[in-house]
Amino acid sequence: MNDSYDESVERTWARPRFREYLLGHLDETESERMEEAVAVISGLIDELQLGEERLIDEYLDGKLDGVDREYFKTQYLDGADQDNHAAFRLREAMRSPEMKKLIEPVRRFRTRPSVWAPVAIAASAAAVAVAFGTLYLHQSHELEKAVATLKSLEGGTRQPVEQPAGQSPQEAVTLSGAETVHVANPPATLIWTTVPDYRVQYRMRLYFTGSDVITSPLLTPRDNAITFSPEHSETHTLPWHVFILPVVGDTVIAHFVLVKR
């Protein structure tokens, strides 16, 4: 980025062109300009993501006209861009009755920091695209698993997965592949070890019996993991629902249920 780059000018240019960019209407030069703006201007990537969610909603609600509908299908359904496919699956899953039931409490207690993670501001457009593509793919896979978990738990047919050997449930529990985790007692610390991008921050949100909710501060990955120790954890009886959330918004990246062994 050269010294003459004017963020105010670029923000004003980019905002009304989000839709054109997402539908593939911009030429190569304009697309590169948009990607640079999203990478370096604080908060713009969040605005673009919200624009993408609205666009996908329009398609799912049958509100896109013929031309835009065909462009949308080329970008998000029939094209080779797996990140776009994942973004579509993610939004579609978020609108399902199962996921609305799962995340509605999250929406009621959400918080929205005013700026994106500092790394996104300093990163190049290519790096941001790769990071968010990876995050989208991870989110879509985790959401599919979360929906399946919710259905099976409600039906009473799923057998909980035992916590891997070597853990100390009274002190810390590692959250990894198992969606349902057996523990002996409420843990003092939770460690999530499948961070999709170590350069950004995350949040944990915990739901307990009796509708109590605890949200962590922003958590910075260390050794590709994030750690949270909720206050007075011993007073919250099991089961616990643990949601992993991004810095901005309430998209569910991962969901775990801690149950009594």
Main attributes?
alpha/beta; 261 residues; 9 helices; Immunoglobulin-like; three-stranded mixed sheet
Describe, in plain words, how this protein is organized in 3D.
The chain is an alpha/beta fold. The protein has 2 domains: 7-144, no CATH class; 159-260, Immunoglobulin-like (Sandwich), CATH 2.60.40. Helices cover 44% and strands 15% of the residues. The chain is built from 9 helices and 9 strands. The strands form 2 sheets. The protein has a 6-stranded mixed sheet, covered by helices on one side. A 3-stranded mixed sheet has the order 2-4-7, with no helix packed on it. A hairpin with a 5-residue loop joins strand 5 and strand 6 (213-215). The longest helix has 31 residues, at 125-155. It is elongated and about 60 Å long. The protein starts with 6 loop residues before the first helix and ends with a strand. The model is unreliable at 109-140 and 153-169 (pLDDT under 50).
Q: What is the fold's blueprint, element by element?
A:
Layout: H1 7-14, H2 18-23, H3 28-40, H4 44-60, H5 66-76, H6 82-94, H7 97-108, H8 118-122, H9 125-155, E1 161-162, E2 172-175, E3 180-183, E4 189-192, E5 202-207, E6 213-215, E7 226-228, E8 240-246, E9 254-260
Parallel strand pairs: 1-3, 2-4, 3-9
Antiparallel strand pairs: 4-7, 5-6, 5-8, 8-9
Helix pairs in contact: 1-3, 3-9, 6-9
Q: How would you sum up this structure in a few lines?
A:
This protein has 261 residues and is α/β, with parallel strands linked by helices. The protein is built from nine helices and nine strands.
